[in-house]
Design goal:
With 191 residues, the chain is mainly α. It has a single domain, classed as AF1782-like (Substrate Binding Domain Of Dnak, Chain:A, Domain 2, Up-down Bundle), CATH 1.20.1270.90. Helices cover 66% and strands 6% of the residues. The strands form two sheets. A two-stranded antiparallel sheet has the order 1-2. The protein has a two-stranded antiparallel ribbon with strand order 3-4. 40% of the residues are buried.
Length: 191
C-alpha cells in the first residue's frame, strides 16, 4: 500500500474506532492508552510525511496499525467498519536520498523486533485465556518478523520495514496492556 493510502486508511479506521469497556474501569484505561498510542503514531506519521520523510512515515503508520489491530483483536476497541489490512497492494518504492535511510532503518527494526520478542515472557498463568492471547501476540510478532526477513532477503525494504513495524506494534501494545513481563531491554517498549 502506498504511504499516503496507508495514512488515509489509518485515519479513517481511527474515526470509526471506539472503546468497548465501560468507562472508569481498568480495561477502559488500557483501551484509552491503546487508542492514544495509535493516534500518536498516526500523528507522527502525518508529520513525517508532510515534512518529506517517507521512511519514518511508513514505520509510524504501520506501527500504529499494529497497535490498532491489537486493540480490536483483544476486544478493547471496536470498529464500526471491517478491519482493513494495510499490508496489501504495491508499496511506494523509495529511491534516491531515501534509499540509504530506508535500508538502515529496516535492518535496525529487524534487530529491534528480534530483541523485543526475546525480551518478554507471557505474564498470565498458562491455564488462562490471557496466556493464550499472549501467545497469539508473540506468534503475530514472530510471523511478521519472518515476513519482514523474507522481504529483506529479496531487497523489498519497504515491505520489510512495514512488517517489522507492524509486528513490533502488536508486541508493544501487548506489553503495555500487561500480557507480558519484560525480562530484558525495557527500553524497547513504550511502558
Amino acid at each position: 500500500m502506498k504511504i499516503g493510502e496507508c495514512q488515509i486508511l489509518l485515519t479513517s479506521l481511527l474515526s470509526a474506532t471506539g472503546i468497548s469497556a465501560p468507562a472508569n474501569t481498568y480495561y477502559a484505561e488500557i483501551a484509552e492508552t491503546v487508542l492514544e498510542m495509535t493516534r500518536a503514531y498516526e500523528s507522527d506519521g502525518i508529520a513525517f510525511f508532510k515534512s518529506g520523510d517517507p521512511v519514518n512515515a511508513l514505520a509510524s503508520f504501520y506501527y500504529g496499525f499494529g497497535w490498532l489491530h491489537f486493540g480490536v483483536s483483544s476486544g478493547l476497541l471496536t470498529l464500526a467498519c471491517p478491519v482493513a489490512c494495510p499490508l496489501k497492494g504495491s508499496p511506494d518504492i523509495l529511491t534516491g536520498p531515501f534509499r540509504a535511510k530506508l535500508e538502515e532503518k529496516t535492518h535496525r527494526y529487524e534487530h529491534l523486533l528480534d530483541r523485543a520478542v526475546s525480551s518478554v515472557t507471557s505474564a498470565p498463568d498458562p491455564a488462562t485465556r490471557g496466556h493464550e492471547f499472549a501467545e497469539r501476540i508473540l506468534f503475530i510478532a514472530r510471523v511478521y518478523g519472518r515476513f519482514g526477513k523474507y522481504y529483506l532477503d529479496s531487497s523489498s525494504f519497504e515491505e520489510a520495514l512495514s512488517h517489522f513495524s507492524y509486528g513490533h506494534g502488536w508486541l508493544d501494545a501487548g506489553v503495555t496492556a500487561g500480557f507480558f513481563y519484560i525480562t530484558a531491554e525495557r527500553d524497547l517498549f513504550c511502558v
